Amino acid sequence: MGTTRILAEILGIGFQGLFVAYGIARVTLSVPNFSQFDPFKITAGAVTVVIASAYILGTLLDRLCDFLVSRIENRIRASILLPYDPNFMRYAVNHESAEIHKVLEYIRARIRIGRATFIMPLIVLVIHVIYACIYGQGFWVDAGNDIVQYAIYIVLSVSGLLLFYESQRKYFKRVSMCYHVV
Q1: Which of 157, 159, 161 is nearest to 72 (CA)?
Q2: Spatial CA neighbour of 83 closest among 70, 95, 92
Q3: What are 9-44's pLDDT values in tens digits?
């Protein structure tokens, strides 16, 4: 049960990462778009390579996002005033109740996806701006197109941050509440 959910989350983050890498490659290396590929010529080996790459990239990006967002997590933890370490409380609750464990794991899944959705658009935005400044005519190479792309990156990143923040707050509160009940 838990392993399948984590695998799906890591693959989701990995596919996000592959789209980010593709977007960066399109901007910097002039990689052709998807309309030039024939979907009927895709082999099982190519699908396997893409899924394996997504899993490896997802694992690395999940750890990177966890590292980059750890300061925000510490601030949220400090604002809630937890009596013990959240991991200790989670293990104690998991030991006592499988049903509560499912709820806490669902919230942790939302935290993981929110973290990645917060960090990855920021990475693309920074690389896009740096590339535009170095190889273009400045920050606004194609003002109409760039404004829309930058706005999308910012909206995605802010929505990911809000999802992460609210899920993290809810997780800490639920873990603390369940620990006191159990």
Answers
A1: 161
A2: 92
A3: 889 889 888 887 877 776 667 666 666 666 677 778
